[in-house]
Amino acid sequence: MSLNIERKIEAFAKLGDKLGHLKEHEFELMAQGAEARNNWFDRQNVKAAILGLAHMLRKDKLEKWLSNYPELNQEKEAKTIGVVMAGNIPAVGFHDFMCVLLSPHRLLAKLSGQDSFLLKIIAEYLTEIEPAFRDRFEFVERLNGSEAYIATGSDNTARYFSYYFSKHPHIIRPNKSSCAVLDGNESDEDLEKLGEDIFRFYGLGCRNVSKLFVPEDYSFQHFLDLLSERYKNITHNHKYSNNYDYNKSIYLVNRIPHLDTGFLLVAEDKALISPISALFYERYSDAKDLEAKIGAHKEKIQCVVGKGESRIPFGMAQHPEPWDYADGIDTMEFLLKL
Question: Which superkingdom heads the taxonomic lineage of this protein's source (predicted)?
């Protein structure tokens, strides 16, 4: 059955409404199933991920986003798109799932073993809303027969994907992380919201802030006191706690200077990506120095949180809009040019 773009938008908007108003037993099924397969995916983070999708799937946002692609209204030969999905945070593969289904193409999706449950339920909700989607996608173990590929993984797997898919059109996304810029004039509300950008999903997402750029005279005490009030119980997750204990021992044995809140290790380091339970920082002298330091990590930065039009507002790193493409690569444009 043919689906025009208006009908597709309507279906995804209804899916967003469904996810934003799940019945208690529906959410329990999703939360329990996700955590049983991955202990990082606890109730509060599954809920945050689902509400994040609902935030993205408002009809007005979908229409605004897709109005940039008039080709979606044209007839086009359907190709089979193989997608290797990440599994670092709950339902992280949804955006690729949505892009392929909104395009004229058919999806073959290989789910990560770390996130093999949620997207299947979300896909079932979508097909209940619009049964015509049922023959447009399939969850598989092997992507045989695909004509183009989208794959997300670690730097090592990205190199493997680049080689393996080299003869086909592809998007390959390696490991990235995010940073935040402070100027010392942030309000308590700003700093508390930054805590969300740091700790949501235990810091496992590419949009999680793993590094701060701060002025040369910046003092962390007040910021860390604010974080302690809200996030000190994060070590109740045994996987996070194990990471904290391990990284603390490394810092102590190697006598690396750091601040320790009892749940977060804060260390001065020029690297961008910090280990789980650690937060790196680097001091800057002026705006030029700041831009040079950010520029040095350009290829590894997913987004920059802070004040200003070019930055993601504090607390919003984990609330991407539908037009916020991973790695800044326009997935829909890629699909429409096939």
Answer: Bacteria
**Segment holding 160, helix H or strand E:** helix 155-164
Read off the pLDDT band of 327 (50, 70, 90): very high
3-state percent helix, strand, coil for the chain, nearest multiple of 5? 50, 15, 35
Cα–Cα nearest to 207, from 233, 173, 237, 184? 173
Residue 336 lies in a domain: no
| Separation CA 302–CA 324 (nearest Å) | 10
116 and 162 together in one domain? yes
Residues 166 and 210 in one domain: no
Residue at 182 is within a domain? yes
Binning pLDDT at 50, 70 and 90, where does residue 154 land?
Answer: confident
Q: Closest Cα to residue 39, out of 196, 233, 236?
A: 236
Task: Indicate whether 318 belongs to any domain.
Answer: no
Q: Which of 89, 132, 93 is nearest to 110 (CA)?
A: 93
CA 316/CA 300 separation, integer angstroms: 19
Q: State how far the Cα of 214 lies from the Cα of 195, in Å rounded to an integer.
A: 15
How many beta carbons lie within 10 A of that of residue 66, not counting itself? 20
d(CA 326, CA 98): 13
Banded pLDDT at 163 (limits 50, 70, 90): confident
| Cα Rg of the chain (Å, integer) | 21
**Which residue type occupies 154?**
S
- The confidence band for 1, taking pLDDT boundaries of 50, 70 and 90, is low
Residues 156 and 276 placed together within one structural domain of the fold:
no
Query: For the packed helices 43-56 and 24-37, what is the interaxial angle rounded to 10 degrees?
Result: 120
Digit-coded pLDDT (tens) for 179-221: 999 999 999 999 999 999 999 999 999 999 999 999 999 999 9
